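Troubleshooting entry. The earlier prediction with pantoate gave an output that would not parse, so I re-checked the input for stray whitespace and re-submitted. Clean input:
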Amino acid sequence: MIVASTPSALTAHLAALRTRSATVSFVPTMGNLHAGHLALMQQARQHAEIVVASIFVNPMQFAANEDLATYPRTMEADLAALREAGVDIVFTPDVTDIYPGGSALHTAIHVPVLGDSLCGRDRPGHFDGVCTVVCKLFHMVEPDIAVFGEKDLQQLLIIKQMVSDLGLPVDVQSGATQRAEDGLALSSRNQYLSDAERALAPLLWQTLQDCAQALTAPATSEAERVLKPARDALQHAGFAIDYLELRTLSTLDAVDHVTEDCALFIAARLGRTRLIDNIQILAP
Ligand code: PAF
């Protein structure tokens, strides 16, 4: 496995490996890799001769009050895991490689509508930072395929929209959310949870499943009649709810019934840890 720590090294190594017929798959990450990331690497491998991963904690997607400084950085373990997963090239740029003049002054890519609700509403600027770095990484790696996890479903929808709007020649694929045995979606931020919070956290996935079942039952009532008591129960259990909502996958509009493909999206805080999850509900 090659570790390319600068854009010019990445370009040189890619040029040496890439043949006319070789397909390149790309999985961008912020490191601190877990089984969810490694499943994306496996998926990337299924479709391509060359698999490229990146590790870059992107300052542009963190607000001033967020956890950029403390975000877990585990480069040696990550490189070992990627080597084991059979990744060909890992790109590990510095902040100055991506944002030579600093991220605050950098051109930003904003995907309207999809990027303005849910986490976009609660974390202003977050998705602009994600889109900007992903677009820059796409230009550097020039992948045929890029794989993103469904755990960050809003991010996945936004990136697909950006790729379509900007005509980027990348096939964006999604990888299923990987979960702990008790249902908690794997996330680098789970390690912020105390033991007591970790024991409580699977309630999010349980709640999503219960709500999805209620919303797809034959005589289903409107979404709020299911979601309001679910929010109250989570709050009572100790969560601070940012949102629990039924939204369409096409526009992320809030809806009362599943008349088109939808998802239930949740973001909730346990202590200082913000957890997100979702469950897709396809139209009958
Ligand atoms: O999902 C993530 O880890 C990040 O948002 C991404 C896509 C690597 C961009 O920094």
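This one parsed fine. The first helix runs from residue 7 to 17.
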